[in-house]
User: Fold these one by one.
Assistant:
Number 1:
Amino acid sequence: MIFSIYIINKAGGLVYNKDYSEGLSKLTSNEYLVLAGTFHGVHAITSKISPAPGSSGIEMLETDTFRIHCFQTLTGTKFLLVADPQQPSIDMILKKIYEIYSDYTVKNPFQNPEMPIRSEQFDVHLLKMVKSFNGLVANNSIPYNVGSNAGVNASLQSQPHVPSLQPSLPNIASSGQGLGF
Amino acid sequence: MIYNMYIFDRHCQCIYYHDWHRGHTAKTAFDTHGDPLASHPSGGGGGGSTTTTTTMTDPRQGMNMSLEEEGKLVYGVVYSLRNLVKKLGKSQDGFIAYRTSHYKLHYYETLTGLKFVINSDPNVESLQQALRQIYTQIYVELVVKNPLACATITNGQVNPETMGAEGFRNGVDRFVRSLTMFDT
């Protein structure tokens, strides 16, 4: 079960946050900003206090009710995924979020990477993806990629520099289906 | 593999430190006594002369962090994360551990506000139960029930060396060395 997704820019500001289920307590928008800033700072410090040299920052935070997985891009943007401790295929989800982020935010000429993300397309695709993993198969929702495979494949063919994503596609679709039903 | 362990009291004071498999660079920088059993926080000052072997990847290089400063940072991290988790989650003290690419930090807090922190390699399963055992079987037995050790804590003026009464230090050492993941 995916609880929330946060995106933190390289300066520690929260640029996107969305809750997908009731697992976590609701916070005010100010508290979310504080939370993002705290995590950003802690992420920096955790690489400094490593007992073994050359450590990265915090990658996974484990608590009794949820886990926070952090994926940092080379440009310093952090994707936080709050999920159930039993949630499988975390890496794939994070990769998928990054893919959606690249497609609908980075490629948007009106979007400044340091500014809050206000993009309906981004919202919609993220929600679709999360639903497919959360298995919330209501009467109208379809697992991500099942209906839109053709479109995704077409868009991938137009970007030959990301060939690694293509082989993983059937995989995602099948796991989405497996979880969905 | 278990790297090191900290205990903090309620007042952000690092009252105990012990290392086992610290990276060799850090060890020479911090532990001027050589013997891990004899290492204690007061050895942290002697880092300056022996840092020549550090590589570019050593996070401490350039910062020249003493053990005392490092303890404060560790406390800051666990304190922030604990509050973050408390705010986000619905339960009290749910923070168990965090993992980076090179280590995993395990956390256990007692009801009295004592914080036990242990660092291991990232593949180790949860050590919270082990920390709990260190508290109930070693700390309570050898420190809480030891009037001399207690006096040094409640006095307000905490002395980490006297607090780590030899019995406690040996007990922790023996316990941690007996863990299956100690050397693997």
Number 2:
Amino acid sequence: MPLDRANIDTDAIIPKQFLKSIKRSGFGPNLFDEWRYLDHGEVGMDNSKRPINPDFVLNDPKYKGAQILLTRRNFGCGSSREHAPWALEDFGFRAIIAPSFADIFYNNCFKNGILPIVLSSEIVDALFGYQGEIVINLEEQTVKTEDNIYNFEVDAERKRRLINGLDDIGLTLQYEDQIRSFEAEHLKKYPWL
Amino acid sequence: MAQTLYDKLMGQHVVREQDGATLIYIDRQLIHEVTSPQAFEGLTMSGRKPWRNKANLAVPDHNVPTTERSNGVSSIIDPVSRLQVETLDKNCETFEINEIQMNDIRQGIVHVIGPEQGATLPGMSIVCGDSHTTTHGALGALAFGIGTSEVEHVLATGCLWQSKAKNLKIEVNGNLGKYISAKDIALYVIGEIGTAGATGYAIEFCGTAIENMSIEGRMTLCNMSIEAGAKVGMVAVDDKTIEYVKGRPFSPTEENWDLAVAYWETLHSDEGANFDETILIDASLIKPQVTWGTSPEMVVDINGSTPDPEKEDDPVKAESIRNALNYIHLQPNTSMSSVAIDKVFIGSCTNSRIEDLRSAAAVAKGKKIANSIKLALVVPGSGLVKQQAEAEGLDQIFTDAGFEWREPGCSMCLAMNADRLEVGERCASTSNRNFEGRQGQGSFTHLVSPAIAAASAIAGHISGV
């Protein structure tokens, strides 16, 4: 799904009124709420009854079921709200392609099974001009169109965790003894902490 | 080898290095009600406990009402907001985490109360589920915002995986003009380098303008570092830092104080330390800044005008300008000082400290807000800031001028509580983000300093002092 805008912020991805939820799920229907619907969205509304903005790409039947979001530079800037990747994931996106991402958002994606892919502005331009289906292979680190194959970089450890769906906290706690001994030294050195 | 401040702070917290990632120890986690409930739920579901309770400090700020609230949490009318604050209270009780509750005099915006309480100290690694955690770097701390999964990770393990950022030095030399503040420097820098200009970098602000700047001004500057995409924004420790920290409730005392000061005095970049990038700025050239669009990088001098997309060569940028002007209902080449406003907001983690309020009050003193202004809000950053301001009579100056004097919280910066703009309303705001809908759906935000916000309230349009 092509979303042709630069600097899309997390306030746009999921507006603040939906941040009041104490749950991790159910944000998909409010993804890009202010661009997607013509009325003002609030928590608890029946979203299926709201007037949709037919000009917004998310409502284009052509892209129904899309799992890849194609967008412009600095996607996910602004607030650290993890509700943004929660909403994207809940809607059905599994990967996002852009020339660059904001740091905290990029990090948050990996925690939620979303693969953010950085490709050059030229390649992103080419993909915006391309009409067919895009296939991503994380194992091979490739983005394929009918005519081209583009390689992308991803941190090896993040790739491993994404493919295997590993629990970050459990992995870190393997080093519990090391953390404890660091902590003992650290608190001895800086006793006011 | 000569090290930068960032390299030193990272180095002092490394627990483990592995495949290019670094596990760092977190000295302090600040917690608020919006980004923590799912983290606590995760802990509960996995049967985990906080790693070190003492590392955490919680406060509700985003959802709290700024109007009369003496009945405590039950004063929150919106049931969804109320539940979020109640959930924080409950989680802090269950997990035995120190919380400053809503009606405590010490309550306030998490990034105001951290330094105010001495919970933010030089040399600390500090995280919070909030992007403006960069604020705390003003005290020579390593501080950055994280998402909720990482909030849970820090709660459970006391640590966080990080990749090392590159070093960016922003050196600001010279004297600032009258009524020009840290906020203007921040907006000016973002205008120069863009909202992704510092992505992947740790910024260290230095130079004579920073040395001469108060700690509160440094907080404003570091606060806005995230608006340039930076990982952290920092200022080296100096005498002002140590003087600021002294005597605060969480600060060290007696022999620990001397030990701490000896350590803190090492928290600066070494002579000859290597920065990947350096930006030099002449402070004397900076004019008051005002944003015209829907991103903090869309900013001009207060005497400037909105840009013309027809004159922009880059098609993506031209489209961004068109989208922004279209959203914010301004024509190209409009003089900013002719833009009429409906509301004014003085507050937020960027500009709600006592010096910010003094600066706005100095402009408002003896004046009246324009008849066309529907609402001018002053929201102190904490109960203690409010108390101090009242002791100085600032509340009286504001209310005499027609401003409303409110209870502390995040308020209209992001409008999660009842303080918001209505559709089509235009606001001069001392907050940090002018994104579409940020202060209320279909509303328009112009970011400015406290002095300019006050002057604009009096003039009824964007105005210099």
